[in-house]
């Protein structure tokens, strides 16, 4: 097994007033050649957007973009005609493919919105753009990891054009679980949303990131009440044409 540890306080940071963002991997003005990506996981941004503020209309292409709200309400509009609001308990996915434009704004004028912005390299280029969102209320489970994203449209959660599986878990103190990887050659990047946990003996705290690969499974223990996101992704970047 190989591992990499990214403590919360080592992340890149940018405070633009309306946006306070922490970057696990190189992004915008933050560049670290040792932290460009974890396999096909390219971006993991921990964003806080001021009341009534947000990201104006801007383009994307050939990227799988996942948003997971942690607090508040985020209003989404895109060039495919979608206008919707995502909130804590939802998961949003966009396949940018051949190209889309979108905006994301804090729906509320009296409180911040906090969400994770995640980018994953696709295994196919120039797919037809698409949008989807789900509520995880009906699939969430206590004290175990449950799936919120996969490569399969018929599975639980949203789906992406990549052999990736995301799981969320909300655990009581002393709860344990074992995660078994879905596909050979994949690794898992664990991001601690709240609390303190232990993964294969490594103690992790709020907003720490921990990557594991060249393993079939790993053991998890929640030391306090905790919330954790697991992102299983291929470790090899796709070799795909333009």
Structural write-up:
- The protein is an all-beta fold and 242 residues long.
- Helices cover 0% and strands 54% of the residues.
- It has a single domain, classed as Jelly Rolls (Sandwich), CATH 2.60.120.
- The strands form four sheets. It has a seven-stranded mixed sheet with strand order 1-20-17-22-15-13-14, with no helix packed on it. Strands 2-3-4-11-6-9-12 form a seven-stranded antiparallel sheet, with no helix packed on it. The protein has a four-stranded antiparallel sheet with strand order 5-10-7-8, with no helix packed on it.
Question: What is this structure, in a nutshell?
Answer:
By secondary structure, this protein is mostly beta strands. 0% of the residues lie in helices and 54% in strands. Its cofactor is Fe cation.
Topology overview:
Layout: E1 2-6, E2 12-15, E3 19-23, E4 41-49, E5 54-60, E6 64-71, E7 73-78, E8 83-87, E9 90-95, E10 100-106, E11 113-120, E12 130-135, E13 146-150, E14 158-159, E15 165-171, E16 176-180, E17 186-194, E18 197-199, E19 202-204, E20 209-213, E21 217-222, E22 226-234
Parallel strand pairs: 13-14
Antiparallel strand pairs: 1-20, 2-3, 3-4, 4-11, 5-10, 6-9, 6-11, 7-8, 7-10, 9-12, 13-15, 15-22, 16-21, 17-20, 17-22, 18-19, 18-21
Q: How is the biggest beta sheet arranged?
A: 7 strands, mixed
Helical percentage: under 10%
Compute the CA-based radius of gyration.
17 Å
Low-confidence stretches: none
The CATH superfamily is Jelly Rolls
Q: What is the structural class?
A: mainly beta
Oligomeric form? single chain
Number of domains: 1
Core attributes:
seven-stranded antiparallel beta sheet; Jelly Rolls; globular; mainly beta; 242 residues; seven-stranded mixed beta sheet
């Amino acid at each position: 097994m190989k591992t990499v540890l990214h403590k919360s306080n080592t992340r890149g940071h940018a405070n633009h007033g309306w946006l306070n963002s922490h970057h696990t991997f190189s992004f915008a003005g933050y560049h670290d050649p040792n932290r460009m990506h974890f396999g096909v996981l390219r971006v993991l941004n921990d964003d806080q957007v001021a009341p009534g503020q947000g990201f104006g209309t801007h383009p994307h292409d050939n990227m799988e973009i996942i948003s997971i709200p942690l607090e508040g309400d985020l209003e989404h509009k895109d060039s495919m005609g979608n206008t919707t609001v995502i909130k804590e308990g939802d998961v949003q996915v966009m396949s940018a493919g051949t190209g889309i434009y979108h905006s994301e704004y804090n729906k509320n004028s009296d409180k911040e919105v906090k969400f994770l912005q995640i980018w994953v390299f696709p295994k196919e280029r120039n797919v037809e753009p698409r949008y989807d969102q789900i509520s995880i209320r009906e699939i969430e489970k206590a004290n175990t990891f449950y799936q919120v994203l996969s490569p399969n449209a018929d599975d639980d959660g949203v789906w992406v054009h990549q052999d990736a599986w995301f799981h969320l878990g909300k655990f009581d103190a002393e709860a344990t679980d074992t995660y078994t990887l879905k596909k050979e050659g994949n690794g898992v990047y664990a991001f601690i949303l709240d609390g303190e946990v232990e993964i294969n003996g490594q103690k992790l705290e709020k907003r720490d990131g921990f990557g594991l690969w060249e393993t079939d499974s790993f053991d998890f223990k929640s030391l306090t009440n905790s919330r954790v996101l697991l992102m299983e992704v291929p470790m090899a970047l796709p070799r795909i044409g333009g």
